[in-house]
Amino acid sequence: MSCLVDVSVVVTVLNEERAVDELYERVAASLDGSDWEAIFVDDGSTDQTFARLRALHEADPRVRVVRFKRNFGQHPAMHAGIARARGRIVVTMDGDLQNQPSDIPRLVAAIDAGADVASGRRVTRRDPMLVRRLPSLVINKLLTRLTGAHVADFGCAFNAYRRDALEPVMHRIGRQKFTKALVCSTGARVTEVDLDHRARADRSRYGVISLVKLALHVLTGFWAQLVQWLGTILGVLGILTSLGVGLWGVVYWIRNNNFPGPLFLGGLVLFVLGLQGFLMAVVGENLQRIQRDVEGRPLYYIERELG
């Protein structure tokens, strides 16, 4: 699709009826004088968020709205917005006003200076240490190792992308939870931009369990052969160790003329564990094939679009 505007701002929202008006006004102010559009993706809100977005669209046609039939999650919502963006530069952000729209020009300037990705970095992060910031550090380390991209804050959703950098990974955006990591893993040029960050007015939607699941998603999403590797390693270690224990048992039996029953039993247990490791690798391969088939299903269902 040809670029019809200079900047597209994609905003994912869920039950943000109190924030969307202010967010729109601040986005418009930050892009004053530019050719821009804002795409709000309502991820199945149950309050008056969509009504407020509809009013914004009627007042300003630069505001486009996508409403899901139900809640499908932030990352499918991000895909819906990016797929409809018509800008040369695509800015993504959350709709809870933790991100400051006044920082948009700084992200856009980084792209204009030659970057493929302007990666937002929350230098004054206002989230709790134990339940948000510490798990984020672990996830950032994992993603750095798995993608080869040295980015300090993969979890920041406030970023800007050159359209050409997004297109190669569009088929994976939404199915994988870290859009920025996907783009960076292609070798895209990255510039980190320090951003202001405010505390969320209400309770965060990410708890400890959600963050643990997110870490597992990182492993399986960016290291697709994780189960196969673990199964193979456990299988090889288990069988080699069992053979070693078995040989040790034979030597002990010959030297002492005493049958070492417990030793042979331990070797047998290790051998069985090794076989289970190989079976886990086989199961992992089949799960990966099933996942490919399942991923053919739609990411989301749209109830209505405005603009």
Write the layout of secondary structure elements.
Blueprint: E1 5-13, H1 20-30, E2 36-42, H2 49-59, E3 63-68, H3 74-84, E4 87-94, H4 104-112, E5 117-122, H5 129-147, E6 159-162, H6 163-166, H7 179-184, E7 190-195, H8 208-222, H9 226-256, H10 261-294, E8 302-306
Parallel strand pairs: 1-2, 1-4, 2-3, 5-7
Antiparallel strand pairs: 3-8, 4-6, 5-6
What does this structure look like?
With 307 residues, the protein is α/β, with parallel strands linked by helices. The protein has 2 domains: 5-207, Spore Coat Polysaccharide Biosynthesis Protein SpsA, Chain A; 226-294. It has 10 helices and 8 strands. It has helices at 20-30, 49-59, 74-84, 104-112, 129-147, 163-166, 179-184, 208-222, 226-256, 261-294, and strands at 5-13, 36-42, 63-68, 87-94, 117-122, 159-162, 190-195, 302-306. An 8-stranded mixed sheet has the order 7-5-6-4-1-2-3-8, with helices on both faces. The longest helix has 34 residues, at 261-294. The mean pLDDT is 84.
